[in-house]
Amino acid sequence: MATKKRRRRRYRLNPKFTRFLIYASVFIALIIYGYNGITSAIKEIKYKETNEYKLISLGYSKDETSLLLNNLNEETIVNILNEGKYNELYPNILSQKYYLAKNYEKYITYKEHHEKEPYDKVIAIVNVHANAGWYNEEYETDTNKGYLILVNKFYHLSSDYERVDLQNINLKYAYADNKAAQIVIAAYDTMYNDILNELNIHLMVNSSYRPYKDQEEIYNDYKNISLKYADSYAARPGYSEHQTGLALDITSLEHPNQKSFTESEEYEWLKNNCHKYGFILRYPEGKEDITGYNTESWHFRYVGVDVATQIHNENITFDEYYAYYLDK
Ligand SMILES: [Zn+2]
Questions:
Q1: What tens digit of pLDDT does each residue of 161-189 get?
Q2: What residue spans define the domains of the chain?
Q3: 250 C-alpha vs ligand 1 centroid, how far in Å?
Q4: Which residues are catalytic?
Q5: Which end of the chain is more exposed for a tag (fewer CB within 10 A), N or C?
Q6: What CATH number does domain 139-326 carry, 3.40.50.300, 3.30.1380.10, 3.40.50.410, 3.30.1540.10?
Q7: 263 CA to middle of ligand 1, Å?
Q8: Dihedral of CA 219/221/226/230: which sign?
Q9: How many A from CA of 256 to the centre of ligand 1?
Q10: What is the pLDDT of residues 276-326, one digit of tens each?
């Protein structure tokens, strides 16, 4: 077979065509550049119309701006913009751990009327309805919540509410006529034995389940003095946690008096350890504005180990826990 001879060919562009290509390229480049310039100018104008730009212009940081935009509706954002100046209130409210969207307006109102109250306290007070004033809002306790039912100065039980699993508490660690829910007595029994082994202290239950009519008698006796007096020293009937059968007033044989109990090592032990058995100190010191009760070193409430541990770790009250985790 004959070998094909390859011929090299050299393509040359017509110089006129080359010039045309150069001009065309420059022309296209100019168009593209011009177009981009115009679009970016338009983009900038449009960005300046956004709420994001306007909030940043008022002094809200990028993070605060995202916080506001992600949590508030258009109308609220417009109202904030209309104020025409930076207000630390909004980002501070929104960044609180226990913030609930449904309470936004209430937080703002409460903080505006109580400027010195720290933000976390504003959130707590509003979440538990305490901003309304004690007994000024009324809710029926959701009795389907088992041992996590809430009874306080806003949530109440009906006059005929009584647990079916109430049992007498053994006289070895309770005074006469004390009853509580079975699960509470079992937990108390373990706690009693542990503190006995550890500190040689004998806990005693002073008071536990209290039926509606008993609470009514106590309250009415106080009310004969004055309504204010009654509300300071007793819960209104239906509003006492003792009606749940889940609360125990505890002192010790060694310190039977509530005042000396408050200063005892067993109180210290209970404060630090009761959550391991499912109990919480229901009315702690410093939380009076949230619970509506002066601190009670003797009043313990059963909520189960998991919830008690969480409440202990987060340093919140059961009222706050309920509002944030159970009533959302
Ligand atoms: Zn009590």
A1: 999 999 999 999 999 999 999 999 999 99
A2: 51-132, 139-326
A3: 8
A4: 296
A5: N
A6: 3.30.1380.10
A7: 18
A8: negative
A9: 15
A10: 999 999 999 999 999 999 999 999 999 999 999 999 999 999 999 999 999
